[in-house]
Amino acid sequence: MAQDKPVFLVIGAGAGIGGHAAARFAAGGYHAVLARRSDQDGLERLVRQIEDAGGSASGTLLDAAADRSMEELVERIERDIGPIGCALYNLGAQIGNRALENTPHKTFELGWRLGCFGVFRLAYAMFPAMVERGKGTLLVTSATAAMRGNAGQHSHAAAMGGRRMLCQTLNAEFAPKGVHVAHVVVDGSVNAPDTLGKLLGDKWEDYKAMKGPDGMIDPAALAETYWHLAQQPRNCWSHEVDVRPHDDVPWWNDNPNPQIDSTGKGFAGPKT
Amino acid sequence: MAQDKPVFLVIGAGAGIGGHAAARFAAGGYHAVLARRSDQDGLERLVRQIEDAGGSASGTLLDAAADRSMEELVERIERDIGPIGCALYNLGAQIGNRALENTPHKTFELGWRLGCFGVFRLAYAMFPAMVERGKGTLLVTSATAAMRGNAGQHSHAAAMGGRRMLCQTLNAEFAPKGVHVAHVVVDGSVNAPDTLGKLLGDKWEDYKAMKGPDGMIDPAALAETYWHLAQQPRNCWSHEVDVRPHDDVPWWNDNPNPQIDSTGKGFAGPKT
Amino acid sequence: MAQDKPVFLVIGAGAGIGGHAAARFAAGGYHAVLARRSDQDGLERLVRQIEDAGGSASGTLLDAAADRSMEELVERIERDIGPIGCALYNLGAQIGNRALENTPHKTFELGWRLGCFGVFRLAYAMFPAMVERGKGTLLVTSATAAMRGNAGQHSHAAAMGGRRMLCQTLNAEFAPKGVHVAHVVVDGSVNAPDTLGKLLGDKWEDYKAMKGPDGMIDPAALAETYWHLAQQPRNCWSHEVDVRPHDDVPWWNDNPNPQIDSTGKGFAGPKT
Amino acid sequence: MAQDKPVFLVIGAGAGIGGHAAARFAAGGYHAVLARRSDQDGLERLVRQIEDAGGSASGTLLDAAADRSMEELVERIERDIGPIGCALYNLGAQIGNRALENTPHKTFELGWRLGCFGVFRLAYAMFPAMVERGKGTLLVTSATAAMRGNAGQHSHAAAMGGRRMLCQTLNAEFAPKGVHVAHVVVDGSVNAPDTLGKLLGDKWEDYKAMKGPDGMIDPAALAETYWHLAQQPRNCWSHEVDVRPHDDVPWWNDNPNPQIDSTGKGFAGPKT
């Protein structure tokens, strides 16, 4: 049923980043539309939590890779729910490390479909109405793999690198028309049961314990940064922002930190 | 006189970015200490505005390039005013474009002293107490010249490039100890009378008119982003953030935007 | 028929970069295999020129986008001609500037297939034998769009950005095994009749005249740099190299060069 | 005594990179002028080796940090020896890792003087004659610290970051005038007794043994790449080139290489 609030659309609304972002934007006055691939119960739980907190939300299962799926969702929202004020593309296709010989062609393509082509399709479907209204925001939860390609990450890095350049081309064309595109590089683990937790399986609890209280990104904190980006007035927009836990070594640094010798002269290491 | 609020120290507090940041942090509960090179009246005006709005502030003239000046200011604040919770290094040495032959050695060195060495000195003086308290923030108002060196910008770009790498080394050493270092790339004009306005002289009013209402960064908006960065919990820190007006072409793009041919195939240009 | 020389395989052998690279490697003792999509006559002309100069070459038409096409070519070469010592991936899918609404989904996908997926397929097919031999080189003729995304370049930049990250993941996995991966950013026009000339059509002659004698990259010069990269001993490998004509403004700079004021102080421009 | 060959000037001519570059350019027909801070015997040995191989060379002790030292050397060469065709700035001020509190202000400044200001001074002194002749080359042996700042590297990274931006500003102004500026990022250990060997002291032999035959950059190989850069025609100039041994992990990758799981799905690590 149509309503008055601008819509915040989350493509990939798990209990981590997507769910927390939806909660934050709902608290800020948006109607949050949560879309995820599976687990109807989990989806309804997230929607209920938002409603219990006084916010407005709805959910839908979505196979983002399927033809016309996102396009029809965007049409339906604009027609039946309300104008999309902000969308969060929160999908990737991280499959763990695979040597090249163990990266099937289909896998490489799927990484591109979900990680890069999906962003193109969403923008293609969503931007015309935003341009007509003269405003809108696209936030993209991205990865370190958009900045550099590690061994074993052929599919994921190619998809992320492509998406990063696409975010720049989209920004170049649409920022002047009032659409804010922000590429957010999540450079560290996120306390997210539906993605990282699932990937780690039974090692998840130990991993969390090892990381400690501030060793992983709190998705509520990231949601706050997403909220800030969406609130920036158009005379002061950020396009690319990195985030990580304070004791996580940034991707550009040697890891672990080279030994800092505070008493004398030590060998700095060859890459200095 | 000592007081209870954490201190927000602005090195380079003009009426633009520095003054607005001071106002925002004062509104957020900090005692703002505004330091600038000259114009005692302007300084007092900024302090009064903050106090009139219910905030707490004080000001001091500061020759940041002078030996021991910033160091003594930091000591004095920690001893007489309160613990520095956050500092904003808001100085550069932009002198306009100069061919190499018109960039005196003294000028090249001054750019380094104000743009790069000053950040080193401030961190050196300020970080030990922050580390002891287990928290603190250093925000650096930086420039596109930290990312790429344009013709005519020998002194400025060398200083900014050095400062960007220094921000990374400081972050690498101190983020694990609870000190948040953020390098903010201001990639566009700022509506700042004391810096850009002064540089443009009598062309300032025409420039503002040409740029239009959203064509320059509103320093109050940038102050809001600075506030957000300082509030990020330590499990979700951003190190590098860019800002620009929405219709400003990002530094990485061709400027002006290449012609987008929406009816047929056009020549993309050699740099694609 | 099998022969003794290592093979230099060019995927995308037009009369510009590909043809000149083939000639250079043939002069250096390789058997050059030139593969291109169409124009059998043009292909034969290039092969004959190499043979007339005393080198060894053969040509084949190749639809690189077609399933199994590159894979079968690699198999055939290894079986019937000789070991591939070096390959040059010289394909992109630059279609000129198109607004998002004029970038059909099929076009976006084709850019990825030719610009990114093709590199994956070639490496997948070719690297096992190179690893077994303990040596090999993959050169990729890349574009500025791999470094930044301009307006109107959605498909091309996404493909190039993806390919750049893929080159890094390939390098990370295979450089330790003796395979040299080099990503060459061609940041300027190339004097190449089959690609740029075709794109410009009847404007080609005027464009060349306007650019002047050193205003476009001489493909023979680029071939020399490719040759150098392939000859680097494995203790001193370059992964990423940029090239441009000396009077072409690098992509990272404002274009045109801001006015350098050599007599006084001038306004540097907002992006400094 | 004046002579006919163009001069190749090496600022920082140790037995590693500088000495090998001098030998290569002398073999290519230049008169090599080797300048180093100390060790007259070592200098004379390098000169003699070049002359014994049939080349032309001379040497001079040079305190590059001293006022007017490089300027007077450039004047003397142009007046008494010959036109400088190419110069190699081969100095840095790598002092090993130091925590901020153990980086004296004087040390931070010295890093800038040798690593950044020295490049400015050399270009300032040398470029006017090159511009008048319409040609010339400046090669800069640079470091990973120009690309990212590791912990403990405050002085070095600030100097290298500044120098990298300076190389871009110099390139922007002088490439159109025929002067080729190339910034070479040496991203790995170099088999160089006078710099790395000295830094490691009695651990040098063990380090070399551990690294193996191709584990360190052979300065003769790097000299070959320098030679190639200096020979590039001006329609095809490279500005930034990286080099490393093939089994050295590039600075942008996680180090060590994340475990590539070739049999199943493995955890990729948080920074992917």
UniProtKB/TrEMBL annotation, chains A, B, C, D:
The lineage of its organism: Bacteria, Pseudomonadati, Pseudomonadota, Alphaproteobacteria, Sphingomonadales. It comes from the Bacteria. Residues 250-272 are annotated as: Disordered. Pfam families: adh_short. This is SDR family NAD(P)-dependent oxidoreductase.
